[in-house]
């Protein structure tokens, strides 16, 4: 029984590079982002992983990352389920804005609160807690059953949707999870016990 859950944040996107708030907007990967995703697949293959099913968001940067990983692992046609529950946090009125321009408009302290607080949403957007409110049920009802059946499951998603998932997996508090940084294209491998607790965790750095 492998009971393996592998989380990967998408490779660098065009808007990551431009320092823009992305949220539910849909820019593609940069050349580096494509490379990061392919490298993640190579590292997972070298580590002996083999997936039974994959999950990703409805946004192209996560889907492209997922497909690159599967291609590199020789599983290009693996069943892949796309759902907006795994989408990035919605940044509302900040979406598409340069982070420096946002600081000029609302002030550095206010933008920092929106970016790094757990439960304060930006105008028209979601807090990390709001993001968790859609990620957690989807994980518990749809993804986790596959893992607990002994499957190896890939989730290719976004910084904040994965933070919300990691918060639940690792039992972290709001202040703890907002400080957690997730590198682009870096696989995190969890092996779970039968009761869904974590048996082991490994980060496959480049």
From TrEMBL:
The active site is at residues 10, 88. One of its GO terms (molecular function) is phosphoglycerate mutase activity. Substrate binds at residues 9-16, 22-23, 61, 88-91, 99, 115-116, 159-160. PANTHER family: PHOSPHOGLYCERATE MUTASE. Pfam families: His_Phos_1. The record marks 158 as: Transition state stabilizer. Keywords: Gluconeogenesis, Glycolysis, Isomerase. Catalyzes the interconversion of 2-phosphoglycerate and 3-phosphoglycerate. Homodimer. InterPro entries: His_Pase_superF_clade-1, His_PPase_superfam, PG/BPGM_mutase_AS, Phosphogly_mut1. It catalyses: (2R)-2-phosphoglycerate = (2R)-3-phosphoglycerate. The lineage of its organism: Bacteria, Pseudomonadati, Pseudomonadota, Alphaproteobacteria, Hyphomicrobiales. SMART domains: PGAM. Its EC number is 5.4.2.11. This is 2,3-bisphosphoglycerate-dependent phosphoglycerate mutase. One of its GO terms (biological process) is gluconeogenesis. SUPFAM superfamilies: Phosphoglycerate mutase-like. Pathway: Carbohydrate degradation; glycolysis; pyruvate from D-glyceraldehyde 3-phosphate: step 3/5. HAMAP family: PGAM_GpmA. Belongs to the phosphoglycerate mutase family. BPG-dependent PGAM subfamily. Coiled coil: none annotated.
């Amino acid at each position: 029984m492998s009971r393996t859950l592998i989380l990967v944040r998408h490779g660098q996107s065009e808007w990551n590079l431009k320092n823009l708030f992305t949220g539910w907007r849909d820019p593609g990967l940069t050349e580096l982002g494509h490379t990061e995703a392919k490298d993640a697949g190579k590292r997972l293959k070298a580590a002996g992983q083999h997936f039974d099913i994959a999950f990703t968001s409805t946004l192209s940067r996560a889907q492209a990352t997922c497909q690159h990983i599967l291609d590199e692992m020789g599983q290009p046609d693996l069943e892949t389920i796309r759902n907006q529950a795994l989408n990035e946090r919605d940044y509302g009125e900040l979406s598409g804005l340069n982070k420096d321009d946002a600081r000029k408009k609302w002030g550095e302290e206010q933008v920092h609160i929106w970016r790094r607080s757990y439960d304060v949403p930006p105008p028209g957007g979601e807090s990390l807690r709001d993001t968790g409110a859609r990620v957690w049920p989807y994980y518990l009802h749809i993804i986790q059953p596959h893992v607990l059946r002994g499957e190896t499951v890939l989730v290719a998603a976004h910084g904040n949707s994965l933070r919300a998932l990691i918060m639940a997996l690792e039992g972290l508090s709001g202040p703890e999870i907002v400080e957690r940084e997730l590198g682009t294209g870096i696989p995190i491998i969890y092996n779970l016990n039968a009761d869904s607790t974590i048996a082991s965790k490994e980060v496959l750095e480049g």
